[in-house]
Write a structure and sequence with these properties.
The chain has 643 residues and is mainly alpha-helical. It contains 28 helices and nine strands.
Length: 643
């Protein structure tokens, strides 16, 4: 590298790039040519041209295939795909019918609203969903969030909440905000899921033992159960506990395998036996509900007309047929008073925003679990579940998402494409058209047992030990979210957990690690090198400046800031660097920047610092240190002569 005057090289744009060894391939240089002003007509024409180009890109087949995934797999759909989808769709349908009715009760709604949310959204997801294993419909977590949002106001509020949830999710998808989900860490997600599982179990104890209970937090639920414990129904308790035992036994049966581990080495009898065990365990919810319904029907039919009350509670009458297809109501009537839309929104509070995020988090977690190494498009999933919830709101449903338990059944059933959801939808429609009279006899405690056995395994105790071994500090946001969700309103607990997570991220951004070491060049010049490990942005700028100033004053020697890990900077950091260079210049101490990226140089140059000196080569450092030593000696010589 040719010898040159350092100050001129740092102040001259051309000379700077002569000494730059970094790549400028990714620096966009826009050349502005002065000329006549653009007229309004030309401006409008330019905007129209850009709009046309964007619309053309939007409707391009490549983008259309990404946003309507059915166009990718439908052209190559085969008979084997159809058989696999029919088998999995029917199996999931037998699971979703009892589950959806149970989750409707968890949301504080009549059972039919769970069925209403299990066919149209599932059908829509067939066209726009990107994950074959996701069956849209009511879920435990979203149902509990719906319950805490409605405050007992009824189905009309739930339908409007479903519509708003879908609109928010769709708007986030259009704006490409699927990245938001990346700010929720694994420990926070595990803490939230575990707390919700315990809350769901606590909320179902009242139906399991046949008592009245209220409350949205764990403390409120426990206090309510304690006040009504003397009203326990032994009939409900016996049926509920019995259902839980049988469901757990059937769950174990689903995992039983006989013969060799490798299916290819099993005999025909062994394979069919294993598949039978798995099928019985997979549709265990339907088996238990059907069995309890038949026994309940026989018991009620055998009683004479003098029977005053049953020893257990039943669901009761469910409207027959499909729901009316109509828009959700944006105004409500309550006590001869019209409640406006904005008043309804104020009643729902922050849950209107939190619930769509929770639905996305649940859905993305399922997609990642069954992705098999493929990438998951969070934006596409936002669009998909947003459209599904909007569609469900037209059939009077409450918000839904993808279900972990049904996704596991779907995957194990051999689903090949999202078309399996079509057969699930058909089965739910058949149930609404022909089976609702028989739902009358289903014991409530049976549905409570279905929910409890579904969510008890969502308590993620096993993640605590790996997190502790990996990074103990990650337990703090996870445990904080867990206890906050248990003892505070659920939406507040979620926001606190996410807030703590973001605070941790911001803290690490504001407090970069800086290694400090003394070095000596081959020429014998000593200098102090400080190496920050990340970008210089406004939260960390003053911290870095104070640290550099502190250690430079302790050691009266030139300072080098190694910027090898600094890939970006902002205006605040540039101003701080300007002040830092001025401080060093005023006290006659040298400050150099090593390996400064060209993009960062441009940011720093924006504030026009006077003493910005940087280099890319260790040989050049010797020259800079020699020159700074000579300059300092020249400055100190008059003072020494006076003494």
């Amino acid at each position: 590298m040719p010898d040159r005057d350092t100050n001129s090289s740092m102040n001259s744009h051309d000379d700077t790039y002569k000494c730059s060894l970094g790549s400028d391939d990714f620096i966009l240089v826009e050349e502005i040519v002065s000329g006549r002003k653009t007229s309004t007509v030309e401006t409008v024409q330019g905007i129209c041209l850009c709009t046309k180009q964007k619309l053309r890109r939007t409707v391009a087949m490549k983008n259309l295939r990404r946003r309507v995934p059915i166009l990718n797999w439908l052209p190559c759909y085969s008979v084997q795909d159809g058989l696999g989808d029919i088998m999995s769709g029917v199996t999931v349908g037998l699971t979703v019918i009892p589950q959806s009715m149970a989750y409707a009760g968890l949301a504080g709604l009549p059972p039919q609203y769970g069925l209403y949310g299990s066919f149209l959204g599932t059908f829509i997801y067939t066209f726009v969903g990107s994950c074959k294993d996701v069956p849209m419909g009511p879920t435990a977590i979203v149902s509990l969030m719906t319950y805490s949002t409605l405050h007992g106001y009824g189905p009309e509020y739930a339908t409007l909440l479903c519509f708003l949830t879908g609109v928010i999710q769709l708007a986030m998808g259009v704006c490409g905000l699927g990245i938001i989900i990346d700010f929720v860490s694994g420990p926070v997600s595990s803490g939230f899921t575990s707390a919700v599982a315990l809350l769901i179990i606590a909320s179902q104890i009242k139906d399991l033992i046949g008592v009245h209970g209220t409350g949205s937090s764990l403390w409120e639920m426990m206090c309510s159960l304690y006040r009504h414990i003397d009203m326990i129904s032994y009939g409900d308790t016996v049926i509920g506990v019995g259902c839980i035992v049988f469901l757990l036994v059937l769950r174990v049966i689903a995992e039983v395998r006989i013969g060799p581990v490798d299916p290819e080495q099993q005999s025909c009898v062994q394979r069919y036996t294993n598949k039978s065990f798995w099928l019985i365990g997979s549709i265990r919810n339907s088996i238990i509900v059907i069995s309890c319904t038949v026994i309940s029907y026989m018991f009620i039919s055998a009683q004479d007309e003098k029977l005053v009350a049953l020893p257990y509670k039943i669901i009761g009458t469910i409207p027959e047929g499909l729901p009316e297809f109509r828009l959700p109501q944006f105004t409500m009537q309550r006590d001869n008073e019209t409640i406006g839309f904005f008043e309804i929104m104020s009643t729902m509070k922050s849950n209107v925003v939190v619930l769509p995020l929770i639905g996305l988090l649940e859905n993305i977690s399922i997609c990642k679990a069954f992705a098999n190494g493929k990438t998951v498009d969070a934006t596409q999933e936002l669009l998909a579940i947003g459209l599904c919830n909007i569609g469900n709101s037209f059939v009077q449903s409450f918000p839904g998402s993808g279900s972990f338990s049904r996704s596991a059944v779907n995957n194990a059933s051999g689903v090949r494409t999202p078309l399996g959801g079509l057969y699930t939808s058909i089965l739910v429609i058949v149930a609404l058209l022909f089976l609702t009279p028989y739902f009358y006899y289903i014991p409530k405690t049976c549905l409570a047992a279905v929910i409890i056995t579904a969510v008890v395994f969502m308590v993620e105790v096993r993640v605590v030990k790996p997190i502790y071994r990996s990074k103990k500090s990650d337990l703090i946001p996870g445990m904080f979210t867990f206890f906050a969700c248990l003892f505070l309103p659920l939406e507040i607990g979620v926001l606190f957990g996410i807030g703590l997570n973001l605070t941790s991220i911001l803290y690490h951004a504001a407090r970069p690690k800086i290694s400090i070491q003394e070095y000596k060049t081959r020429a014998g010049y000593k200098y102090l090198m400080l190496t920050p490990d990340r970008c210089l942005v406004f939260p960390s700028a003053d911290y870095v400046r104070n640290l550099v100033t502190k250690h430079s004053l302790k050691r009266d020697m030139p300072v080098v800031i190694d910027c090898s890990h600094v890939y970006g900077a902002d205006f605040t950091a540039a101003k701080v660097i300007e002040m830092l260079t001025k401080d060093f210049s005023d006290r006659g101490q040298a400050l150099f920047f090593y390996n400064l990226k060209p993009s960062v140089v441009d940011v720093f140059r924006g504030v026009k610092p006077k003493e910005l000196v940087f280099y890319y080569n260790k040989k050049e450092l010797d020259r800079l240190l020699q020159k700074s030593t000579e300059q300092r000696h020249t400055m100190l010589q008059p003072l020494l002569q006076k003494k």
